[in-house]
Amino acid sequence: MPVFTYKALNSVGKEATGVLNADSPRDARLKLKSMNLFAVDIEPMVDVKTGQLRSTSKIPLVGKGRIKPDELAMLTRQIATMLQSGIQIMQALTALIEQLDNKRLRAVMLAVRERVAGGVAFSEALNAYPRYFDPLYVNMIKAGEASGNLDKIMIRISDYLLSSHRIQSKVKGALTYPIFIMIVAAGMVVFMLTFVLPQVTSVITSNTNARLPLPTEMLLAVSSFLSRFWWVIFAGIIALVLFIKGLKKTKEGRHMVDSLKMKIPFLGQLFKKAAVSRFCVTFATLLESGLPAVESLRIVKNTVNNQVLADIINEASNKIVEGSDISAPFKKYKVFPPVLVYMISIGEESGQLPELLKQLSKSYDEEIEIQSQRLTTMLEPLLILVTSLIIGAIVISVLMPVLEMSNIK
């Protein structure tokens, strides 16, 4: 059954967009009417003459936003389970679409099903939506179609997506609490400097001509600067964020940013291990799916989320084309741990490279978890101590002139 995108108005004149199945545009209008919607524009997702998708921009951007990794993993596993049960891909997609709650994902899968119904391969239909299905996902599906093991490949994709999501969640979890503490602490300090300190000192100076203590005068100077030039600080922060974003749009800029990230005290090793773990599990999953090493590495370089590693991986793939071993190009760089290079070398010789890479990935995941917990445990009291010292210094600076006044009296 064809899929249509629509724009419509509800009973109060509010615009609504979406997708629906209908035999014809007239049938689509009738369905909208039964939903108390007045159709403004209805278009088929797939051109009737060419069989091609009209435009990915025609898919209504409704719902919760981009597809989350765990949602995509669950979707992939559900399709794989149905394929293992002997259900054909078209029937599997139809059953899946009926139970999807994410409207954006449902719209995409409806369009994918429409293309598959028109005779397009499942991998090619997914490739029309690179925003949702990256090259790694599409190439693994293509490898599964070619080998006749699509169900098994999709199980591996699901496992890979969940594993990658766990790694990212651990790193983000390790950073979330310290960042929250820093933001709260900065807010408290700014509040005391810009509101509490000036009010207290103004009361003191109005009752006495005595000179304020040096620490109090220094804090008042800081307070005055914050009150008068807060917009300069705010603009500077925005400019810095925009500069970093602009820097990350170039290959050289990403290389510099990622290189600096891996040199940050305490956090650098966490970022590095997360990238290496992602490399291991992605490379292993692609090799298990039947993709050649060179093609796998060219896909992996776009998934590690680290330009330093991506450049090394790209060089490694080029060296392999020239006849080098997989492990040889990685030996020159300290970014990749020696144990990883050694395991790749053993895996090449024994023919068990995917299995060894997966074991390494699990080992790095455990290290990331331990290091994340250690980092959180260490930073929490340290940040509280620093915050307490700063606030304590402000309180003492406020009390010093009060005590001096009491001594004078």
Walkthrough of the structure:
With 409 residues, the protein is mainly α. It has a domain of 246 residues: Type II secretion system (T2SS), domain F (Receptor-associated Protein), CATH 1.20.81.30. The chain is built from 14 helices and three strands. A three-stranded antiparallel β-sheet has the order 2-1-3. Helix 3 runs antiparallel to helix 4. The protein is flat and about 90 Å long.
Structure characteristics:
70% helix; 3 strands; three-stranded antiparallel β-sheet; Receptor-associated Protein; mainly alpha; flat
Task: Itemize the secondary structure elements and their pairings.
Blueprint: E1 3-9, E2 15-21, H1 25-34, E3 38-44, H2 69-84, H3 89-98, H4 103-117, H5 122-127, H6 135-147, H7 150-207, H8 214-247, H9 251-261, H10 267-288, H11 293-300, H12 307-321, H13 338-350, H14 353-408
Helix pairs in contact: 2-3, 2-7, 3-4, 6-7, 7-8, 7-10, 7-14, 10-11, 10-14, 11-12, 13-14
What fraction of the residues are assigned to beta strands by DSSP?
5-15%
CATH H level, superfamily name of the domain at 164-409: Type II secretion system (T2SS), domain F
Q: For the CA atoms, what is the radius of gyration?
A: 29 Å
The H-and-E topology, N to C, reads as EEHEHHHHHHHHHHHHH
Cross-sheet strand order for the largest sheet: 2-1-3
Helical run tally: 14
Principal-axis shape:
flat
Distance between the termini: 92 Å
Task: Provide the structure class.
Answer: mainly alpha
Low-confidence stretches: 55-65
Share in helix: over 70%
Query: Strand count, sense and closure of the main sheet?
Result: 3 strands, antiparallel
